[in-house]
Automatic annotation (TrEMBL), chains A, B:
<protein>
    <submittedName>
        <fullName>Pyridoxamine 5'-phosphate oxidase family protein</fullName>
    </submittedName>
</protein>
<dbReference type="InterPro" id="IPR024747">
    <property type="entry name" value="Pyridox_Oxase-rel"/>
</dbReference>
<dbReference type="Pfam" id="PF12900">
    <property type="entry name" value="Pyridox_ox_2"/>
</dbReference>
<dbReference type="InterPro" id="IPR012349">
    <property type="entry name" value="Split_barrel_FMN-bd"/>
</dbReference>
Length: 243, 243
């Protein structure tokens, strides 16, 4: 089911049994630029994996580097250690953009952007590689921050698991049309509307134990109150990709 | 691994191999009231399931009725039809409440509320039961709305799959402490802060084809601009549970 190594330079993911949409094909996005834009606008994903046939769905912070995804601290880590060949996973990101209230139940919907990525998860075992990946995670979310932090201890690094996965194939799904009713329903005296939804940052709360004179670093300038988190995350991803 | 039928009246979920937290035990919530509060504050969940060992993670709207969860239109539906004994799933809800910037990489975190629910998914096959469930879904999200809509056609009901699952066991996870650094790190000249995150409703956009004189129904009064979606959803769940 997976694409071959040679496909990593392709502009789109190959369609196969696991990433091809079964219905609502007009919502599908197989080009990598679209899928990456959905992934890079997020901090949190949900990861599905199965152990002895029992599925688990875990939320975690993640980030993308080219065709690879990374995350850490997953509850899958204990079982991953026992599974050297790696663990098949599906990593999904979902942005909810609006609630759509239509004139019949069937046409009620939501506008959203989602991406499902398939691959095999492996633990990053090399300590130096792991430490570097964790620094990149910090910098991806908070530009330039890693160098300003207290260095990680050996114990802290030992207690952290970093997991990486090559994206073998993926699919984006986008709905962004608001109310879409049957033509004959528009004349009915039924209220219909789009309720926009956005996830935003609030007023920053500096740590109450911050010593006097410690300034807020410039790298955090993007986090302004009421700004959309997806915009900030996408902007910070670009800063991290092209410093 | 599942609890017995007799446990549905218990105030807490039994702990077992699949819902017991492996680490950070202080974050665990096994009482049903805590788990339900996390579920009922959400509209969207992520569902993990596996087909022939391949995991899938799908986002969908869902709702709770007592110890049962319902959702519809999942891409799992085609495969569910072929699987009469039902399909093991893990349904997870996650609310992101803040980003936590600490003085070392290890203590960077997020505040969040999440719930993982385990069970076996079945299709609601009976047409009348299915139609009633879809009406309840509308009313759960939008109080009193189902009765105001154009009646669903036979074709629309046929094209919709409703899936139900008894919650066999579940676990909530909550972090809400903001910055928590090592005692010796607080004196360091490193910026640390909590960035609150909230998901809110924007200004309502009535359908551009709404006939003149169609009022906005009172049942939608809770959806006021800038109000938190989790608050609205929890409030609407309570209206639906105790009309």
């Amino acid at each position: 089911m997976s694409t071959t190594e040679a496909d990593t330079d392709a502009p789109a993911f190959a369609r196969n049994d696991r990433n091809r949409l079964r219905r609502l094909h007009e919502r599908g996005r197989y080009d990598k630029a679209s899928v990456h834009a959905i992934l890079d606008a997020a901090m949190i994903c949900h990861i599905a994996y199965a152990i002895d046939g029992q599925p688990f769905c875990t939320a975690t912070a993640f980030w993308r580097e080219g065709d690879r995804l990374y995350w850490h601290g997953s509850s899958a880590s204990r079982m991953l250690r026992a599974q050297r060949p790696g663990l098949p996973v599906c990593l999904t990101v979902t942005h909810l953009d609006s609630l759509v209230l239509a004139r019949c139940g069937f046409n009620h919907s939501v506008d959203y952007r989602s991406a499902m990525c398939f691959g095999v998860a492996h633990i990053v075992e090399d300590p130096a590689e792991k430490a570097a990946a964790l620094d990149r995670m910090i910098d991806r979310f908070y530009p330039g921050r890693a160098a300003s932090l207290r260095t990680s201890t050996v114990q802290e690094l030992k207690a952290t698991t970093v997991i990486g996965m090559q994206i073998e194939d993926a699919v984006g799904k986008v709905r962004s049309k608001g109310v879409a009713d049957e033509e004959e329903d528009y004349a009915l005296p039924i209220y219909a509307a789009r309720f926009p939804v956005r996830t935003v940052i609030g007023a920053v709360e500096p740590c109450s134990r911050l010593p006097a004179g410690v300034p807020r670093p410039d790298g955090l300038d993007g986090f302004t109150p009421d700004r959309r988190l997806d915009e900030i995350m996408l902007e910070n991803h670009h800063k991290y990709e092209e410093p």
